[in-house]
Each structure stands twice: as C-alpha cells, then as structure tokens.
C-alpha cells in the first residue's frame, strides 16, 4: 500500500511542480482587494456585490507615460488592477515604447508570455538557461512567445511609437528586472558582492547605481 502511494506521488510530481496558477474551483471569484490573499488568491467579493462592471477593464486603453529613463511603460491588467482575474490564472499587459525605448531585460517567475505587436517595429529577444540568445524584429500583427522565467526584452527599433499587448498564464506573473534586482534594491546588495560578480572596481558599481537613480 505504501509502495503504491509512493508510486502515485512519484507519477504526479512532475504535474504538481510544473503547475502554473491553480485551476478555478468556481465560475468566478472577483477579488476583494481589501482582504489579504491566502495562497495567492484573494477572497471573493460577495456574489451579491458583483456586477457586469467587474468583468470589464478599461485600463489598457490609454497610452502609458514613457517619459522616463528607459522610454517605456508597462501597464498591467493583472489581478491587482482587474480583480475579476482572481483565480483564473491569466492576465495581460500593455507595453508602450517611445522611439528607441527599451522594456529592459527582465523575467516573469510565474508565467510564460505571449505577445502581439499592435503598432511599430520592435526587437524582441530572450536568452535561454544555456545562454543562447534568440531574437527577431517584429511589426504589427506579429506574435512572439517568451518561455516561463527566461530573461527577455523589447526595444523600439522604428521611427514611431510602439504598442504591444502581452498575455500571461498567471493572474500575477511577477517581474524580475535585472538592472534593479542587482543595483537598486532596498537595502543595497553589498558593494563587494557586485564588484566581485562583475570583476570591476566600486566606482563602476556606484556609477551604475547613480545612473539608475538609487
Ligand atoms: C458589498 O456591498 C455592500 C452594500 O453596497 C457594502 O456595504 C459592502 O462593503 C460590500 N462588500 C464588499 C466586500 O465589497
Ligand atoms: C509623464 O511622466 C513625467 C515624469 O514622471 C511627468 O513629468 C509628466 O507630467 C507625465 N505626463 C503625463 C501626461 O502624465
């Protein structure tokens, strides 16, 4: 009996460890963002309080403000901005890039990403865990995919503004932005770790930190 149980657990293990967000247990569970999430799902708003408005979201209609260091803006349509996504395991973002703008190298720990270019010309690239770089320049209507957790970026290489819509198999994909993860944390990673990592002296690390505004 114990052997059988072990066998079942062993056979299920790959499915358990590779699962994305859990499957829904109800038709919907519009998040009550005022309550604390348990196991990453928010408690549901009482069904009697739910209206049509809960299932529609205007947040991706407007151009994001790209007046910043990178000339880019990601506008999230995830559970935190669109509470009806709670428990459904999906979300979307809008990415605006000014000419030459860069959505800097980052990864999403909890989701694969697919995206479609709506406007402009974009260089999309990602790097595998084996350090192979894949990339292509895309135009309107062309689609891309970024496997879960891999580092990737989008850069505007055209003359005009870029708009991209991206979709994730998580209600809250999370983003690890490499530059800020290393150089703009609170508190800072000790300087000797960064100088040793990059084999440079501290003036270079300080320069990067001040360029990033920290
Ligand atoms: C549900 O609606 C009632 C009446 O409008 C309101 O008082 C209450 O705060 C609402 N509850 C939630 C969790 O939204
Ligand atoms: C865009 O962001 C910049 C920098 O934060 C700010 O000065 C500017 O007012 C913003 N523009 C709009 C239209 O909100």
TrEMBL record:
<keyword id="KW-0464">Manganese</keyword>
<feature type="signal peptide">
    <location>
        <begin position="1"/>
        <end position="19"/>
    </location>
</feature>
<feature type="binding site">
    <location>
        <position position="103"/>
    </location>
    <ligand>
        <name>oxalate</name>
    </ligand>
</feature>
<keyword id="KW-0052">Apoplast</keyword>
<feature type="binding site">
    <location>
        <position position="106"/>
    </location>
    <ligand>
        <name>Mn(2+)</name>
    </ligand>
</feature>
<keyword id="KW-0732">Signal</keyword>
<feature type="domain" description="Cupin type-1">
    <location>
        <begin position="67"/>
        <end position="206"/>
    </location>
</feature>
<dbReference type="InterPro" id="IPR006045">
    <property type="entry name" value="Cupin_1"/>
</dbReference>
<dbReference type="InterPro" id="IPR014710">
    <property type="entry name" value="RmlC-like_jellyroll"/>
</dbReference>
<keyword id="KW-0479">Metal-binding</keyword>
<dbReference type="GO" id="GO:0030145">
    <property type="term" value="F:manganese ion binding"/>
</dbReference>
<feature type="disulfide bond">
    <location>
        <begin position="29"/>
        <end position="44"/>
    </location>
</feature>
<comment type="similarity">
    <text>Belongs to the germin family.</text>
</comment>
<feature type="binding site">
    <location>
        <position position="108"/>
    </location>
    <ligand>
        <name>Mn(2+)</name>
    </ligand>
</feature>
<dbReference type="InterPro" id="IPR001929">
    <property type="entry name" value="Germin"/>
</dbReference>
<feature type="binding site">
    <location>
        <position position="113"/>
    </location>
    <ligand>
        <name>Mn(2+)</name>
    </ligand>
</feature>
<dbReference type="GO" id="GO:0048046">
    <property type="term" value="C:apoplast"/>
</dbReference>
<feature type="binding site">
    <location>
        <position position="152"/>
    </location>
    <ligand>
        <name>Mn(2+)</name>
    </ligand>
</feature>
<feature type="binding site">
    <location>
        <position position="108"/>
    </location>
    <ligand>
        <name>oxalate</name>
    </ligand>
</feature>
<feature type="binding site">
    <location>
        <position position="113"/>
    </location>
    <ligand>
        <name>oxalate</name>
    </ligand>
</feature>
<keyword id="KW-0964">Secreted</keyword>
<feature type="binding site">
    <location>
        <position position="93"/>
    </location>
    <ligand>
        <name>oxalate</name>
    </ligand>
</feature>
<keyword id="KW-1015">Disulfide bond</keyword>
<dbReference type="Pfam" id="PF00190">
    <property type="entry name" value="Cupin_1"/>
</dbReference>
<dbReference type="InterPro" id="IPR011051">
    <property type="entry name" value="RmlC_Cupin_sf"/>
</dbReference>
<protein>
    <recommendedName>
        <fullName>Germin-like protein</fullName>
    </recommendedName>
</protein>
């Amino acid at each position: 009996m114990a052997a059988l149980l072990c066998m079942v657990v062993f056979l299920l293990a790959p499915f358990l460890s590779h699962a994305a967000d859990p499957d829904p247990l109800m038709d919907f569970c519009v998040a009550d963002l005022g309550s604390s999430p348990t196991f990453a799902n928010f408690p549901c708003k009482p069904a009697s309080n739910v209206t049509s408005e809960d299932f529609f979201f205007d947040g991706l209609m407007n151009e994001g403000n790209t007046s910043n260091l990178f000339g880019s803006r990601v506008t999230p349509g995830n559970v935190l901005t669109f509470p009806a996504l709670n428990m459904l395991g999906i979300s979307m973002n809008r990415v605006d890039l000014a000419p030459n703008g860069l959505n800097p190298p980052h990864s999403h720990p909890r989701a694969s990403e697919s995206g479609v270019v709506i406007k402009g010309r974009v260089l999309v690239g990602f790097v595998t865990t084996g350090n192979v770089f894949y990339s292509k320049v895309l135009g309107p209507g062309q689609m891309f995919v970024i496997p879960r957790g891999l580092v990737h970026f989008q850069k505007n290489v055209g003359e005009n503004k870029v708009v991209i819509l991206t979709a994730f198999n998580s209600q809250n994909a999370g983003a690890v932005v490499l530059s800020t993860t290393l150089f703009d944390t609170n508190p800072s990673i000790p300087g000797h770790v960064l100088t040793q990592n990059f084999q440079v002296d501290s003036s270079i690390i300080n320069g990067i930190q001040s360029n990033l505004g920290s």
